[in-house]
Amino acid sequence: MRLVSAALAVALTPSFVAVPTVAFDFAEPPHPVSPKVVSTAISGVDQVELATFPSTPAPAAAARTLQVTGREVSGPEVLTSKMTTARFTVAGVSWSRTSAVASKEVIVNVRLKEASGWTAWEKLAVTDDGPDAMTAEAAGARVGTTPLVSSGATGIQVRVDTATGATPPGLLVSTIDPGTSPADDGLTHAAPPGSASAAASQPAIITRAQWGADEKLRKTLTLNASVKAITIHHTAGSNSYTQADAAAQVRGIYAYDTLALGWADIAYNFLVDKWGRVYEGRAGSITSAVRGAHAMGFNTDTMGVSAMGNYETTAAPAVMVDALARVAGWKLSQYGVNPLGKVVLTSQGGVGAKYAAGVAATLDTIHAHQNSSYTLCPGKYLYPQMGAIRAKAANYASYSSTAAPTADPPGTRLSDLNSDGRSDLVARDSAGRLWLYPGNGSGGFLARRSMGGGWKSMTAIITPGDVNGDGRGDVLARGKAGQLWFYPGNGASRLSARRLAAAGGWNSMTALTSARNMIGNARPDVLARDKAGRLWLYPSTGAGTFGTRHLAGRGGWNAMTAIAGAGDLSGDGRADLLARDRAGTLWLYRGNGGGGFGARTLAGHSWNGMTALVTPGNFDRAGGNDLIARDRAGRLWLYPGNNAGRFGSRRPLGTGFRGYLIA
Q1: What end-to-end distance do the CA atoms of the chain give, in Å?
Q2: Consecutive 10-residue runs of the chain (663 residues): their mean pLDDT?
Q3: Burial grade of 349 (CB within 10 A; 0-12, 13-18, 19 or more)
Q4: Within a 10 A sphere around the Cβ of 558, how many other Cβ atoms?
Q5: Helices 386-397 and 318-333 sit at what angle, rounded to 10 degrees?
Q6: Cα 147–Cα 152–Cα 157 angle in degrees, nearest 5
Q7: What are the φ/ψ torsions at residue 257 (nearest 5 degrees)?
Q8: Are 443 and 619 in contact (CB under 8 A)?
Q9: CA distances from 570 to 1, 307, 573, 645 (A)
Q10: In this structure, how many other beta carbons lie within 10 angstroms of the beta carbon of residue 253?
Q11: For residue 185, what pLDDT is reported?
Q12: What backbone phi and psi angles, to 5 degrees, belong to 261?
């Protein structure tokens, strides 16, 4: 919950403003990118094309190939013409799961028309990724090949052979244009500011919002009970991608997995590019034990981390190997798992699984996909690095939290403006431009992003959380005329261009702060202090407006120089309030759950050196709700809450914030 005091707002507009040092290089704000997916039914044999080669093509060795015994076939069951298409970068072939043709009996070859002409035929392995059998996700899934990633193609030809001569039913070839975003060219992998131990506890992660995930594509996630092991993969795609191409590759795989194969989300929990940048895969994987579809038969209680590229044909860069280890060590440490240990997992069976359903398999807690499935994944050049990955992961895990992550209590996730499940900070500079500083989930910031200009006329800004009930963080701002404006968030670091009037007459209030869950409604209410020193609670309707106000404090609040709705600081499940008096003493007013407060208790001394207080919720996701304070030199400090009404030792967050109104 956020403090905006009228007195502080005046003090935050100096003639010179320094750029905060935590503002890393930034690109255009990210936004969801909707892919263009074309699925075409294929059948029969084009006799003209068949005449161009009398025998089965000799494809290049597939990187993620099922090792099955094949047999010679007399001719293709399907051979298409050279099909002209709209430009695409990802392609694959799929068919109905009800097919009587076993997956190991199907051979799929494709070739593409790229800028240099038609490529050689390439064999696409039938994927052994996918949801486990008998799960809800498997019910709507199709069988298919691994996706083929291209730098760009405008044509495709497909050949399908089977050992039995039967054609798989419902054959489709899917081509995908994942779209582009200006933000693709500036995704950062800067380590979060602060201490080395804070950075080690969670790697910097490019969130789904940042890489442009279209959340409409995915279905409901499924949670595992724990994370007992990490499976290392590779995507077996192109190795020639640039930094600007990487996000589009992730979007393309996401679209293929969801729209072509019918899976609930992208297969992997995390992906790592060749520059060591980590991408959030399946939604929720940063904070929860989300079940993936990365290793059929072994998705339960595991997470999949995939190296982007084909490491059957080239060596993985050292920075990529290091990032794979960082993710594995961080995630396993949250569940008390030794990265150098062993684990017994029970197979659920399925395509390519080395172990039949019900068989217990003893595996390394960090193992390669080929250890549980008949596959070459993660490739002959990355597989020998598994020992190094385990050793590095064990080292990184020693600096990580050993407490399993927990969901935020109601009313504590207050300012998540980019939909990554982590609290953020908003700051307005003296030129009137609003900036978002996304939290990294471990007590630091990712690269800042512009939220637009024109905010100089606002006398108060608060970030209360989801005001209209759409699941996205919003902003409230008071204009000079006393109008309170509601700015809906789009879930991707931006606000709607269409603001809505929440209420008028707010110029009589000398302080505003968000106060979510004050009356147990789990909504972002607002507390306001009037000129007489009374404190009023304005309950949210959940639709961007507020109901009839209630008196929350009868008088005497003019003695306070700062007031901040803080969420539950005391650990009793009720929203509390922080207030600083003129002597610099910080007081905690415990909420009673009905819109009022009980007796105050001491929270700290000597707070007069702070020019702003911000209560972002559980900013570092460790312990309780936290406090961010700015001193007179413009430095930001994080005071971690202990869930008992007090704060731990402060940690530096950044400098150069003198002259910013922070919320």
Answers
A1: 9
A2: 34 30 41 91 92 54 35 75 95 84 84 93 86 85 90 94 89 94 62 31 82 92 92 91 90 95 95 93 91 93 96 93 93 90 92 88 96 93 95 78 39 65 88 90 84 91 84 87 88 79 82 80 84 90 83 89 86 85 92 85 90 87 83 91 83 89 88
A3: middle
A4: 15
A5: 50
A6: 60
A7: -65, -40
A8: yes
A9: 15, 43, 8, 4
A10: 26
A11: 66
A12: -100, -10
Amino acid type, 642: N
Nearest CA to 219 out of 252, 257, 249 is that of 257
Q: What is the predicted pLDDT for the residue at 32?
A: 87
What are the C-alpha distances in Å from 414 to residues 1, 6, 237, 596, 651? 6, 21, 39, 20, 21
Task: Give the integer Cα–Cα distance in Å for 262 and 305.
Answer: 21
Residue matched to tokens 């990210």: 30
Interior/surface letters 52-71, b for 16+ CB within 10 angstroms, e for the rest: eeeebeebeebbbbbebeee
Q: CA triplet 91, 233, 110: central angle to 5 degrees? A: 25
- What is the DSSP secondary structure assignment for residue 105, as one 8-state letter? G
The residue behind tokens 């304005």 is 538
Contacts of 133 (CB under 8 A, 6+ apart): 296, 297, 348, 349, 350, 357
Question: What phi, psi does 151 have (nearest 5°)?
Answer: -75, -10
pLDDT for res 26: 35
**Residues pairing with 527 in the sheet:** 513, 537
The rounded distance, in Å, linking the Cα atoms of 533 and 626 is 26
Count CA atoms closer than 13 A to 591's CA, side-chain side. 27
395/329 Cα distance (integer angstroms): 8
Cα–Cα distance between 278 and 306 in angstroms, integer? Answer: 10
Task: Give the Å distances, CA to CA, from 616 to 7, 195, 220, 421, 449.
Answer: 21, 20, 28, 12, 18
Element (H, E) at 318: helix 318-333
479: left (phi over 0), alpha (psi -120 to 50) or beta: beta
The residue whose two tokens read 């609003």 is 434
Report which secondary-structure segment, H or E, holds 360. Answer: strand 360-364
Provide the pLDDT for residue 100.
Answer: 63
Following DSSP, what letter does each residue of 501-542 receive, concatenated?
EEES-GGGEEEEEE-TTTTSS-S--EEEEETTS-EEEE-B-S
Q: Which neighbouring-strand residues pair with 529?
A: 511, 535
**What is the chain's length?**
663
Instruction: Return the structure tokens found at 96.
Output: 């109905």
Question: 199-211: buried (b, 16+ CB within 10 Å) or exposed (e) per residue?
Answer: bbbbbbbbbbbbb
Query: The pTM is what?
Result: 0.58
- Residue 182's closest CA among 346, 33, 57? 33
Structure tokens at 79: 């051979």
Secondary structure of residue 552 in the 3-state scheme = strand
Strand partners, 32: none
